[in-house]
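re: the backbone from monday

yeah here it is again, tokenized this time
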């Protein structure tokens, strides 16, 4: 538990932990032996809360550091929108496990995995190298606070995902 508390002091570690959770949820959504609808509900909430918290609390702050590419930060926000659109398309399929559901799940996996890979290689590596530990800890606290606020507000509901996608 002490290790988790220490990780919480680094926004990069907190974001990476969410990324690994998303990948695990993808595995659960693909498995016929899992509660696929439950995994989707959990994923939906995490994706929206994570993206909204990154955009409101982290991305703007990271643009101020020289080794964090501003264009990559803006591109990250664009990729959040693409992931949110793919999520909505999946949420709108009524039959979990149908051919359409599986196809839209793969579209979601592709969009989100592309973003996770790019964000980890560009934005997060730049943050790890350029942003002082104290600032990364402050950003972690702000990120987690906003993420929890989003989760408490049922941010993964189809109605909220529609509102996020439509801006």
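seq for it, each position gets an aa:
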């Amino acid at each position: 538990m002490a290790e988790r508390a220490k990780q919480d002091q680094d926004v990069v570690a907190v974001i990476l932990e969410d990324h690994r959770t998303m990948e695990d949820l993808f595995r659960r959504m693909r498995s016929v032996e899992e509660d696929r609808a439950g995994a989707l509900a959990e994923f939906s909430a995490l994706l929206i809360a994570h993206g909204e918290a990154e955009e409101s609390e982290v991305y703007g702050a990271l643009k101020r550091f020289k080794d964090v590419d501003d264009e990559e930060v803006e591109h990250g926000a664009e990729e959040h929108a693409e992931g949110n659109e793919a999520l909505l398309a999946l949420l709108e399929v009524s039959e979990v496990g149908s051919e359409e559901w599986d196809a839209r799940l793969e579209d979601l996996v592709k969009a989100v995995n592309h973003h996770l890979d790019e964000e980890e290689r560009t934005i997060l590596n730049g943050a790890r190298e350029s942003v002082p530990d104290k600032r990364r800890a402050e950003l972690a606290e702000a990120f987690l606070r906003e993420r929890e606020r989003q989760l408490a507000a049922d941010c993964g509901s189809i109605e909220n995902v529609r509102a996020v996608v439509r801006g």
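The chain has seven helices and no strands. The mean pLDDT is 92.
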